[in-house]
Specification:
The chain has one helix and 22 strands. It is an all-beta fold. Bound molecules: beta-L-arabinofuranose. Belongs to the glycosyl hydrolase 43 family.
């Protein structure tokens, strides 16, 4: 594979105290970042916004990695729509996770089979691929448009979960093979207490809610509690988060994670990871020259959890 260093920061590098230049990828648009730490290396799986696009017409997923959070290696395009014979459009947000030495990259794309968006999964023996469609068909495809943005968590007891959706939030168990569902797909009821606003179809027209789930969920667990980070507030989006003792709920709305700020993008999409003793929030902006709402780029902010494991409010660079 043709890997090359894509960004050599001019910062004086002092361990991981130095911060990367944002956006971290300067050579193309890299949206919807999903971090994964493996063997002491930080991998970031992203989408790819086409230059000059007028919508999220997206055809491939890209991969970057680093061992110092400053110098990033470009691993190219380990996965594209062509990998999935059932998919023909909209290579949208995705996340990769390792289990038993295999790497499972959960994606969403437009399904030729149903005409809606569907969840799929690719598998590889290495974090950089080569990836192939793990099952030759979608993991979940019911013809609806809200099957986007899968996030995956392997719980402390080994049970894996997949969660996704816009504007509804769905979840299911994954079997140990990671490529088949181990439960019915269930919807998480959005309540004012859980997400700052009720389900989309129960919201009163014209009423201002404290917040509302929109899309781009990221599921993680800290201090025994599930944490769901997500894009909120419709257009434009900011990041918010909720917490729960069970994935099925009830969820508790915890507040804004990253204000809308001056990101120059009407969407935001995040993932969080601890790496070499530091915590990082990945998100996207439209700040690369020529970028914007359909030309988004991965950025990262280092942060410290509050003493009780909750998130501080994190601001985008330059805000
Ligand atoms: O990248 C296309 C879509 O935009 C993603 O699926 C959403 O999360 C939003 O970032």
């Amino acid at each position: 594979m043709n890997t090359k260093k894509i960004l050599l920061s001019s910062l004086m590098l002092t361990g991981l105290a130095a911060s990367a230049q944002n956006p971290i990828v300067q050579t193309c648009y890299s949206s919807d970042p999903a971090p994964m730490v493996h063997n002491d290396r930080m991998y970031v799986y992203t989408g790819h916004d086409e230059a000059g696009a007028d919508f999220f017409w997206m055809y491939e997923w890209r991969l970057y990695s680093t061992d110092d959070m400053v110098n990033w290696t470009d691993h190219g395009v380990p996965l594209s729509l062509g990998t999935f014979k059932w998919a023909d459009d909209r290579a949208w947000a995705a996340q990769c996770i390792e289990r038993n030495g295999k790497f499972y990259w959960y994606i969403c794309a437009h399904s030729k089979l149903s005409g809606g968006m569907a969840i799929g999964v690719a598998v590889a023996d290495s974090p950089t691929g080569p990836f192939k469609d793990a099952i030759g068909k979608p993991l979940f495809d019911n013809g609806k448009w809200d099957n986007i943005d899968p996030t995956v968590l392997i719980d402390d007891d080994g049970q894996a979960y997949v969660l996704w959706g816009n504007p509804n939030i769905y979840w299911a168990k994954l079997n140990n093979d990671m490529v088949s569902l181990g439960s019915e797909v269930a919807m998480i009821e959005q309540t004012v207490e859980g997400f700052g606003a009720p389900q989309m179809d129960k919201r009163e027209k014209g009423k201002k809610y404290k917040d509302n789930y929109t899309e781009g969920p990221w599921l993680s667990k800290r201090n025994g509690k599930y944490q769901l980070l997500y894009a909120a507030g419709g257009i434009p989006e900011h990041l918010a988060w909720s917490e729960a003792d069970n994935i099925a709920g009830p969820w508790r709305y915890k507040g804004i994670l990253m204000p809308e700020g001056n990101t120059k993008s009407f969407t935001n999409h995040c993932g969080v990871a601890d790496y070499k003793g530091h915590s990082y929030l990945f998100y996207h902006t439209g700040k690369l020259p020529g970028g914007g709402g359909f030309g988004r780029s991965t950025a990262v902010e280092e942060f410290k959890y509050n003493a009780d494991g909750t998130f501080p409010v994190i601001h985008p660079t330059d805000d």
